[in-house]
Amino acid sequence: MESTKLFLPLLFIFYLLSGKGFASHHHHHRSHFQPSKLFVFGDSYVDTGNVSPSDSNYPKYPYGITYPGKPAGRFSDGRVLTDFAANLIGLKSPIPYRHLEKVGLKGTKHGVNFAYGGTGVFKTGFDLPTMTTQIDFLQTLIANSTFTPDQIKSSFALVSVSGNDYSYYLSTNGPIQGFIPLIEKVVKQISVNLRRIHSFGVKKISITALGPLQCVPEITALTDFKECNSTLSQLVDFHNFLLTRAVDELNKETNDYPFFILNLHDAFSSVIQNKGNPQGNIKFENPLKPCCIGINPEYNCGSVDKDGNKKYVLCDDPNSAFFWDGVHPTQQGWFAALTILLSKFKQHF
């Protein structure tokens, strides 16, 4: 990662000078919108059970120990962003798309979750639906009259992009010079995706800002969970800067400002800096240290050897940790972060 230090700051400063920095235009249109359906697209931050137990990246024990008590396809010890977002708008967490075949139309009462852990805006090496394909799934359901136009009009879409395109690029040893064009390409496609979801008639659409990837345990493990990686933070900031600009542009195209950013970056950063959330009386002694961790870099949380021996260490209480594993928050971590975003989130409804 060191080689990025040479050219990134210059490029990044150029972009900040050429635009308006991170200033986002907040138009507070008082709306009393009560969604009747939630549609979810994206990755493991919002997946509630689409990755099949037969898939190599399915979250196995001890995932799910807090809720529902066993592995159920969530990448955490318990509830994830989708569950909390659904609760905030007065809905139950929508059914994972994979389960629709079994339960049929009655399962779509609260919407559908199309997100698959491990996916990105583009292909990420897992044989899973990209975000474009996930949006195709909704389009097919609409074409099949699973949802009426009125139901779509009273729906909310939650879109999560938490960095799989970038980690996949790094894992394939993509040249560091290609990172800026990749970020531009990813954000451009996010914009296409958001516009497409809106074109179906979906009334409100939220896209997550990229969290502070420089602070995830996978990265901070190199410093014994003591400090974040400043080089990586510039890439994250650049993504969020372009995303803010793209969302502003999309809102200018419409007259009802349907798009908004769910600022996970600020919320996560606040929890990390404050070692918790003082408002919610939540404390994390070392927010950079995960609850569940492989005993060495080649193992992940949940790894076992061929004899079934654990190759990971688990903390005594998941509620004491902000991060559950190398990249995902605990249920308590999500709760702490979303408590910070609560009032901003509710302004849009």
UniProtKB/TrEMBL annotation:
GO terms for biological process: lipid catabolic process. Coiled coil: none annotated. GO terms for molecular function: hydrolase activity, acting on ester bonds. InterPro entries: GDSL, SGNH_hydro_sf. Gene3D superfamilies: SGNH hydrolase. Keywords: Hydrolase, Lipid degradation, Lipid metabolism, Signal. Residues 1-23 form the signal peptide. This is GDSL esterase/lipase. It comes from Cucumis melo var. makuwa.
